[in-house]
User: What shape does this take?
Amino acid sequence: MKNLVMTGGSSGLGAVTLQRLRDCGEARVLLGVRGVGPEGVEAPRLDLARLDSVRGFAAEVRERLGDARIDALVLNAGVSLHSADTRTADGFETTFAVNHLAHYLLLRLLMPQLAPGAVVTLTTSATHDPAARTILPVPRHADAQLLAHPDQDPDRDTDPRKGGGRAYTTSKLCNILTARALAATAEAQEHGWRVVAYDPGPTPGTGLLRDTPAVVRAFWALLGTPLRVLVPRFNSREAAGGHLADIALGRVVPPAGELHGRVVRDKLTWPAPSELALSDDAMEALWRDSAKLVGLPD
Assistant: This one.
């Protein structure tokens, strides 16, 4: 029996992933949830907008598992907000805090419990990459201090919607940089951990756009129905969630030297991420500065 710890499994592609993990009959899943979890699932409370909740969740996971190790850590939850003006209880910009900082802390806290050969996935997005030419503004940098406190950034976007979009794309850049930093650690190399930055691609019908205007939400939900075939570049929740489950269960192994997976037209591919995502300087600085923000040693 494999032990898996997951965030973002209550709806959207994450719910598909969770169901696939349960259906395989070989996985015990501990799912972090803010409210009530799906029936029959172990669901310790987790609010990613509060770092004390992240610490409490990690402690409960350790208590529930006892001497057992974690075979897969699936960090899938995320938000996309209409601006970068909201702050968490810890005083950090919400999108950065939820999508990156909370998952970084959870990863660091659970690293000692990862089994040899464990799989770690962090959900990212092609929106981080200028070459993808999405409609969202691309990241300018990965400076953790400025991302946590954007009011300190002299180049901060003055348009709220543009600021919210950039906060999202930059948080997805941070997910890739964190995956690369983890894979480079001595622990990951010693224990053979498999690290994947997973991009499900545009997958309509999920709750990611719940903070957008009603007409946008309605259109997004509509494209999550069989009408999705009218826009072939969109992926199905079944494909996006299924690929993530296969990676977590070890059924899919990245090609040698690759850790960035992207679903394109329902197929899993392994493209290079953006130039900034491949910067070792940005990777090392983000890992170090994120540790300072959450009160951990480098």
Notes: The radius of gyration is 18 Å. The chain is about 40% helix and 15% strand.
